[in-house]
Design goal:
- The chain is α/β, with parallel strands linked by helices and 242 residues long.
- Helix content is 42%, strand content 17%.
- The protein has one domain: TIM Barrel (Alpha-Beta Barrel), CATH 3.20.20.
- It has 10 helices and 8 strands.
- Strands 1-2-3-4-5-6-7-8 form an 8-stranded parallel barrel, surrounded by 5 helices.
- The two termini are 28 Å apart.
- The relative contact order is 0.16.
Length: 242
């Protein structure tokens, strides 16, 4: 299955639900996947900044039992590799200057990813200031791009594309106080040709819609859905709105 062409090659707005393996529960997964299916969610992302209970395999298997939607790994570390998923976003944290998250961890993970036969999607990962300290910032030991520095975000995204990244993922982080600014989304999208993913802090259909209007190709929501799973329907409708 060519996940990249199947999903990101459509040229349509996409909506993905992000599931944290640490919060994996069969009843919760079943209900969430049922809603995701009827709400035209495009794929499921699985991953988190920190895994304590080693639930990744269990979580993926539960999801696979409930849906045929593609399951894509959104790894928080080199330990979050599982061949039961369909693909992996190979994240390079291009907004930071931590060499371990630019290439170091990838060198360790590469043989395992190769053996897993996962489809690899190189992704330029950009953390954006969100108004509070997120887990992603703490774990990555990097500074986010300031919310008012569109020029830095633009240059970073352009560099990521020039380096061969197939996706640019701008993230305010899990539990962000503020989402990625609309003005930043618009300016970045004007300068890149690869799909642009926006995540973090999107807690309402209105925020999802405005992000799409500004140029986001894919909206990712995790924390908001953990609080209210029914938001899946409304946010999906907003993302797909013409």
């Amino acid at each position: 299955m060519d996940i990249y062409s199947l999903i990101f090659g459509k040229g349509e707005k996409q909506f993905a639900v992000l599931l944290d393996p640490e919060k994996c529960d069969h009843k919760v997964i079943k209900n969430l996947i049922a809603l995701a299916t009827v709400s035209a969610v495009d794929y499921i992302l699985v991953g988190g900044s920190l895994l304590v209970n080693d639930n990744l395999d269990k979580c993926i298997r539960l999801i696979k039992d409930e849906t045929h939607l593609p399951v894509i790994l959104f790894p928080g570390s080199e330990m979050q590799i599982n061949g039961n998923a369909d693909a992996i976003l190979l994240l390079s944290l291009i907004s930071g200057r931590n060499p371990e998250l630019l290439i170091g961890k990838h060198v360790i993970a590469a043989p395992y990813i190769k053996a897993s036969r996962l489809e690899v999607i190189p992704t330029g990962y950009i953390l954006v200031e969100s108004g509070n300290s997120t887990t992603a910032l703490y774990m990555s030991n990097t500074m986010p791009i300031p919310r008012d520095k569109n020029d830095i975000a633009i240059s970073t995204a352009m560099a990521g594309e020039m380096l061969g990244m197939k996706l640019i993922y701008m993230d305010a982080g899990s539990g962000a106080l503020y989402p990625v600014p609309v003005s930043m989304i618009r300016k970045v999208k004007e300068q890149i040709s690869v799909p642009l993913i926006i995540g973090g802090g999107i807690s309402s259909p209105e925020l999802a819609y405005e992000s799409c209007r500004a140029g986001a190709d894919i909206i990712v929501v995790g924390t908001a859905i953990e609080k209210d799973v029914e938001l899946i329907k409304d946010i999906s409708a907003a993302v797909k709105k013409r």
